[in-house]
Write a structure and sequence with these properties.
Low-confidence stretches: none
Number of helices: 4
Strand content: 15-25%
CATH topology: Glutaredoxin
Strand order of the largest sheet: 2-1-3-4
Radius of gyration: 12 Å
CATH class: Alpha Beta
Largest sheet: 4 strands, mixed
CATH architecture: 3-Layer(aba) Sandwich
Structural class: alpha+beta
Mean pLDDT: 95
């Protein structure tokens, strides 16, 4: 399974939704809370091409985007192959 990283803050409802989808799929992820650490937020902004909102989601080296993009990718059938999940 491909490594997943998600940049979040504590009270972000979109972060909660994105993590819920990943959990539903049984995907482990590394959560990076940028709420109180400006250097982590700066790293997120640099990795995401300037996006400052959370969540910012990365699957392997690929920047998926935020929660809406994650759900759209799933609806289009592109998320499972990206995650390395076998078809059911």
């Amino acid at each position: 399974m491909t490594a997943v990283e998600i940049y979040t803050t504590t009270i972000c409802p979109y972060c909660v939704r994105a993590k819920a989808l990943l959990k539903k799929k049984g995907v482990a992820y590394r959560e990076i809370n940028v709420e109180m650490d400006e250097s982590l937020r700066d790293a997120m902004v640099a990795r995401s091409g300037g996006r400052r909102t959370v969540p910012q989601i990365f699957v392997g080296d690929r920047h998926v985007g935020g929660c809406d993009e994650l759900y759209a990718l799933d609806r289009q059938g592109g998320l499972d192959p990206l995650l390395g999940l076998a078809e059911k």
